[in-house]
Amino acid sequence: MDIDVTCPMCNLLPETSLHLFVDCTFAQDCWRKTFGAGYASVEGTFACWFDKAVNNGQSDNKEDVVMLC
């Protein structure tokens, strides 16, 4: 049985954790609408992006990032 690994939100790329939360155009729109343009994609892994989002964000945003992920 073949399983489709394409992201169901954008139907463009494989659904990895980095794509799902960071690189997907749908996810990027969600982050921009929630936090503004400061939560763009980063090189590396989802863990790198998450660490940057939580540790470099404003203190009010830390809880929001954790809740949304």
User: Which descriptor suits the 3D outline?
Assistant: elongated
From the structure provided, what is the oligomeric state, counting identical versus distinct chains? single chain
| Strand segment tally | 0
Proportion in β-strands: under 5%
Outline of the structure:
The chain has 69 residues and is mostly helical. The protein contains four helices and no strands.
What does this structure look like?
57% of the residues lie in helices and 0% in strands. It is an all-alpha fold and 69 residues long. The protein has one domain (17-68). The protein has 4 helices and no strands. Helix 1 (17-23) crosses helix 2 and helix 3 (46-56) packs antiparallel against helix 4 (59-68).
What descriptors fit this protein?
single chain, 69 residues, mainly alpha, 4 helices, 57% helix, Reverse transcriptase zinc-binding domain-containing protein
List the helices and strands and how they pair.
Elements: H1 17-23, H2 25-35, H3 46-56, H4 59-68
Helix pairs in contact: 1-2, 3-4
